[in-house]
Amino acid sequence: MPTDPSESAPARVFISCGQAKGSDEVETAAKIGRRLEELGFEYYIAVQEQTLRGLKENIFGQLENSEYFIFVDFKREQFKDSPECRGSLFSHQEIAIASYLDITVLAFQESGVKPDDGILQFLQANATRFTDRHLLPGVIADEIQRRRWNPHWRNELVLGRPHATQHGDSRMVVMGTEKISRFFHIDVHNRHLRKTARNCYVYLERATRLVPPTSIPVRAVEIKWEGYTLPSAHIPPGTIRRFDGFYIFHDDPTRLHFRLFTDSTAFIPDVHGDGKYELHYSVVADNFPTARGSFLLNLNHSLSSTTLEPITRLATEARSHPGEVE
Predict the structure, then answer these.
(1) What 3-state class would DSSP assign to 57?
(2) What order of strands is seen across the sheet that includes strand 68-73?
């Protein structure tokens, strides 16, 4: 079972194709998107942005987060003294960025467009030629299936827990006294098909007591991985690695303790007392986007009743912006 809704989120496809007004290009792009949905993918259709901020927030952000890239080169104006036409300048810029980001590319060129023009001559994209725009969505779908694109993965790390009571008890010696502690672990799932997440570090970013609303001071310090003595760890593709979210002593059930790489008590968050808390963790890796996960802690004087469960993204937004999330 997925530990979080994002665990089952499909692979994302960036569709780069012309959107010329007064043409059938917008309709064709929408049909391509619908065919991708039928195959189990999530898609984004690139619309030309007029501002640098729009490029950064929309185009660049979507490109960086996409697992696949579809390039459709529609005909533009004809070259002088040549029967051939140029393709879409904007789409050529996007495929250049996709190449830099090492995203898997499928390329299609309308008949009449100068073949291997611009950056295509360097990418060896082997663009498929097409003549009928109405048939293009089906042609793309067939090629995706032939290439065996997989909709069940993402270039991301996902934080979660299989169930709210997931924990493990351990004996510890504290100042010469043996004590039993209960560890609440958090899973980090590498959803990539082939890429190992390298040098992953865990941080508690924020901690909040919900009633009364109280922000608990937190400083940046690395958290320990389960069963591992170094602050950074690798996570192979398709696997899950856990970190020690916190632990609680059986004889002191309303106080959290953290396994941190620090020699100063000033870096230890002070989370204690019956009640509900939100804990926000992040995982930073060399070669993956930063992953974040929010968890609801129900801290109870009866340790058996203490739970830690993921907070869905929608619920988090609703609390942060009441009345704004539909």
Answers:
(1) helix
(2) 42-45, 12-17, 68-73, 104-110, 128-130
The pTM assigned to this predicted structure is: 0.82
Q: Is residue 315 scored above 90 in pLDDT?
A: no
Q: CA dist 109 to 72, 119, 130, 322, Å? A: 6, 13, 6, 47
Q: How far apart are CA 224 and CA 75, in angstroms?
A: 55
- For 295, phi and psi rounded to 5 degrees? -135, 145
- 274 alpha carbon, distance to own chain's centre: 33
Helices and strands (DSSP H and E) totals, the chain:
7, 16
Structure tokens at 41: 């993918």
d(CA 116, CA 81): 18
Question: Which residue pairs, CB below 8 angstroms and at least 24 apart, start in 281-284?
Answer: 281/159, 281/186, 281/202, 281/203, 281/204, 281/205, 281/223, 281/243, 281/245, 282/202, 282/203, 282/205, 283/157, 283/159, 283/188, 283/200, 283/201, 283/202, 283/203, 283/243, 284/200, 284/201, 284/203
Residue 210 tokens, joined = 């919900």
CATH of 5-146, one of 3.20.20.140, 3.40.50.12780, 3.40.50.450, 3.20.20.100: 3.40.50.450
Give the length of the chain.
326
Q: Checking DSSP bridges between strand 168-174 and strand 157-160, what pairing results, if any?
A: unpaired
Instruction: For residue 164, count other CB atoms closer than 10 A to its CB.
Output: 16
Q: Three-state SS for 259?
A: coil
- CA distance to 2, 153, 206, 307, per residue, from 6 (Å): 8, 10, 21, 21
pLDDT digits (tens, 9 = 90+) for 98-133: 988 889 999 999 998 888 776 776 776 788 999 999
